Amino acid sequence: MAFEAHDAIAPAASDALAASPRRVPAPTPGRLTCVPWRDLEAEIPAWDHLAQVASEPNPFFESWYLLPSLRHLAQTDAVRILRFEQDGVLAGVLPIVRAGRYYRWPVPHLSSWLHTNCFCGVPLVAKGAEAAFWQAVLRWADDEPGSALFMHLRGIVLGGPLHAALEAVAASDGRQIEVVHTEARAMLASDLAPEAYLEASLSGKKRKELRRQSNRLADEGTVAFERRMDANDIAPWCENFLALERAGWKGEAGSALGCDEGTARLFRESLNEAAARGRLERLTLTLDGRPLAMLATFLTAPGAYSYKTAFDEDFSRFSPGVLLQRENLAILARQDIAWSDSCASADHPMIDHLWRERRTIGRLSIAIGGTLRRSAFRHFVRAETARRPAGHPSREPS
C-alpha cells in the first residue's frame, strides 16, 4: 500500500529513517503475509478452526464477526490482514491498517484495526504459536514500515498469554514496548454460585430493593425470562433488539446500532452466524411477551463476552436491565465458561456494582525499524507518557 510521509516527521528525519539499516531477521518457524482482508473469505473453515484452538478467545476477530465488520462498515478498504501460518495451517490473524494520525497527532504508524463495536483487540493466534507469531509480526514491521514511526496495538488484555509472549519477544530482541493507556472494566469470574455471588456483590438493602422491583413489575402482567442458544427466530429477535436500543438514549444520541445501516447489518449478520455456530446466548426479559430487556452474549469458551444489552427506558423504575443481569449470573453455573467480559466502559454505573472482578485492557506502542526510527520513537513515546501516563483517561478525536 502506498503511504505518504507526514509533516510530523521533518524531511531530514524522514530521509534518515528511510536510510537506516534494517535488522536482518532471524529465522522463525512459520510464515507471515500481509493480505487484503477479502482473501480470508476463502479460508473461513480454517479460520473457524483457528478460533477453536486460539491461545486467547476473541470473538471480534473471528470470521463471523470480523468479516461482517469489514463488509458493512465504512472506510475498510485500507484494512489488511497479517496472516500467519505454521506447517501450512492458519495459525494467526490480526487486522491492521497504516494510519496517518495517532489520535490527535499527525504521526504515521502501523495500527491494529478496531471499530466502535469491537471490544477486544487481541490477535487470534493458535495456542503454542504466540512467540513465533509476534516474531513474525515484528520482523514484518521492521522490514515494511513505510513511513510509520512505530506499531500501535489497541484492546490488548494485559497479563494474558498474547501480551506475555509479546513482552518476552520484545525483551529478547531489545525492543522498546510501552503501555500507553490502560483501563479496567467489569468482569465476572468466580467459583461462587449465582445467588452467593449476588449476595457478595450487593448489600442486603439493594437485594431487597431488587426483589421489590421484581414484584412490582409482576403486578404489571406476566413476567418471563427466556434464555436461548439456538438459531431459531434470530431475525425477529435482532429486530426487537435494534428497536429497543434505538428507542432509548442511544437512539437520541445517534449511537444505537439501528441508527446506521452498516452497524445494523453487522449486528444481524454476526448474531446469525454466531448462533449457527452455537456461540450466541440470547437472554430476554419480557412483560406479557413484550421485550423489556435483552442481552446478546458471545460464548467463547473458556470465556464469554457480553456483547450488547438494551432495556425499555419507559420501565426504568423497575430496573429491567439490572433484573436481567441478575438472571444472567446463571452463567456462573456453566462448566465451560470460567469468566465473562462485560465489554462495558470503565466505571460503568450499573455493571461495575454487580460484577466485582476487573479486566485490564491496554494500548501498546512498539518500536520498529532501524536505529534512527527507534530513537525517534523513544523520544515520542517519552513525551506521550509524560503528558498522559498509562491509566489516565484520554480524550480521543472523533
Query: How many angstroms does the end-to-end distance come to?
Result: 25 Å
Counting helices, strands and paired strands, the structural category is alpha+beta
Highest-level CATH class of the largest domain? Alpha Beta
Compute the number of strand runs: 13
Based on CA atoms alone, the radius of gyration comes out at 23 Å
Order of H and E elements = HEHHEEEEHEHEHHEHHHEEEHEHEH
Mean pLDDT: 91
Into which percentage range does the β-strand content fall? 15-25%
Task: Report the CATH superfamily of the largest domain.
Answer: Gcn5-related N-acetyltransferase (GNAT)
Which bin fits the share of residues in helices? Answer: 25-40%
How does this model look, in words?
The chain is an alpha+beta fold and 398 residues long. The protein folds into 2 domains: 11-184 and 360-387, Aminopeptidase, CATH 3.40.630; 190-337, Gcn5-related N-acetyltransferase (GNAT) (Aminopeptidase, 3-Layer(aba) Sandwich). Helices cover 36% and strands 25% of the residues. Helix 3 (63-72) packs antiparallel against helix 10 (261-276) and helix 4 (130-143) crosses helix 5 (161-172).
Question: Layout of helices and strands, plus pairs?
Answer:
Elements: H1 11-19, E1 31-36, H2 44-52, H3 63-72, E2 80-86, E3 89-99, E4 109-112, E5 124-125, H4 130-143, E6 150-157, H5 161-172, E7 177-188, H6 194-201, H7 204-219, E8 223-228, H8 234-246, H9 249-253, H10 261-276, E9 280-287, E10 290-300, E11 303-311, H11 320-328, E12 339-341, H12 351-354, E13 357-367, H13 371-387
Parallel strand pairs: 4-6, 11-12
Antiparallel strand pairs: 1-2, 2-3, 3-4, 3-5, 6-13, 7-12, 7-13, 8-9, 9-10, 10-11
Helix pairs in contact: 3-10, 4-5, 8-10
